[in-house]
From TrEMBL:
Transmembrane stretches, start-end: 6-24, 148-166, 199-222
Domain of life from the UniProt record: Bacteria
Keyword check for Membrane: yes
Organism: Roseiconus lacunae
Alphabetical keyword list: Membrane, Transmembrane, Transmembrane helix
Keyword Transferase part of the UniProt annotation: no
The protein's name: Zinc metallopeptidase
Pfam family, one: Zn_peptidase_2
Amino acid sequence: MLYFDPLYFLFAIPPLLLAMFAQWRVKSTFQSMSEVPARMTGAQAARQMLDSAGLTQVGIERVPGHLSDHYDPRHKVLRLSDSVYSQRSMAAVGVACHEAGHAFQDAKNYAPLTIRNAAVPAANFGSGIGVTVASVGLMLSSIPLGKVLLLAGIVMFAGVVFFQVVNLPVEFDASNRARRHLVEGNIISANEEQFVAKVLNAAALTYVAGTLQAVMTLLYFIMRFMGDRR
């Protein structure tokens, strides 16, 4: 069985530990940078950044939850959490303008963003069904049907890995756009950019951890399928 295979834990534990560290770092960094004041709220900073690029049609909405911030390309709207929308802090400004960076990408038809958005259905399907099918295939590995199910699960979960890999340049680019426009737009000073960078760099680590988890899981399934038990 998958969950009692020592080999699985060799693949799973390192990225899991990295993910746990990344989540801790995001929370602690956001909290500490929330105490560093900014001259405007997250919503105001994002609005100024969007308007400076002529993206006046992109809306900004408040949504519940903590760090539930995201850009909705279908409705052309930034959705900012309470701790970002109305707070005057470097943490709020950094997160809000990172999401505004995604709106910039959308407006410019940034290719990795287009590919990522197209991969969302496959990733959503493969993240649940793919792992389940592959796990069942491993449990039935002694019969031909097990190999078929394992291969099917690998193919489905490959969509998750593809999404995660493509997502990395999308997120990094959005952060780079935010940091550049924050200073150029006089939303923050050049000396304050270091505080925003701490928040965005911490967030970047979560994307790396998520990608590593997906890649290592896929490699484990592939190795089991190939029969390599070394």
